[in-house]
Amino acid sequence: MSEYTIVVPDNDIISCVCGTNDSNLKLIEECLGVSVFTKGNELSIDCSDKEICQKFQFIIDRIVDEIYDGSINYDDIVLSVLNTQKKINADEISIQIPGYPKKIYPRTQHQAEYINLLQTKDMVFCTGSAGSGKTFLAVAEAMQLILSHKKSKLIITRPVVEAGESLGFLPGDLEQKINPYLRPLRDAMETVTSIETVKKLTEAGIIEVAPLAYMRGRTLNNAVIILDEAQNTTCSQMKMFLTRMGENSKVFITGDTTQVDLPKKTNSGLIHSISLLYKIEDIGFMELTAEDVVRNGLVKKIVRAYENEKQTEN
Fold first, then answer.
1. For residue range 98-109, what is the model confidence (pLDDT) as tens digits?
2. Of 153, 182, 183, 159, which Cα lies nearest the Cα of 250?
3. Angle at 68 between CA 62 and CA 70, to 5 degrees
4. ∠ CA(126), CA(131), CA(132), 5° rounding?
């Protein structure tokens, strides 16, 4: 039987991978069905099965990436990776952005299904609470499509729900006026690529930001179009936006149906469109929940509390 070995150059990282008293290695062994042993900064398995070796490499690479990323607790990383691995064919579910050193992996079952939809459907609706990854993953997949030259333009938009002031009275040019509304999308772009890359693409017109009203009358070909905070569109705005889709384009719609800021008695275009279009097989639909929240653990508890309250009311 041949040995398959992975070298982890950082001793602190390999310690985190192994866990206290090699507790994490035991979990990895259960997932793979083979023994894992260490020697210095090497992790090895005695196995000649190519599929198992690939899965072992994938698991370790992903755990190391998650540890370096540091966005979730070390104690949760290995369990999160393995739980996802058991439920899906996670070897093929990731986003690789050209020029970005790490793959972006799903951290939950729902996130894996969402990435799969983003990569296989031309139109995807995703609803979910704050921190569930709905916007970040849509932006990551969009940047992958742009930087790999599969699409020629990224258009990002968001409905402007104003509080007493019109955009016309705000200082600056159009981009300066709407920048606060689109800051979360810019933050996501700058997380998966460099600030310089985003700036260059924007200056070249490859990345375009615009208020939703500016979509009217356009046909958007060979583009990725992201509509964020879609719960704050009216039904007529949503219909207008969805019919802008041109040839060879992909459209990603994200929103939180529990955070509708429209005037009373105004129906949400997101909720209406999902109820109207859910039977169309060519459109992908995903709902993320508190279990998909990957921000501070406290955020997950807060979201779950609100979900529980809503269920109680119903």
1. 888 778 888 788
2. 153
3. 105
4. 40
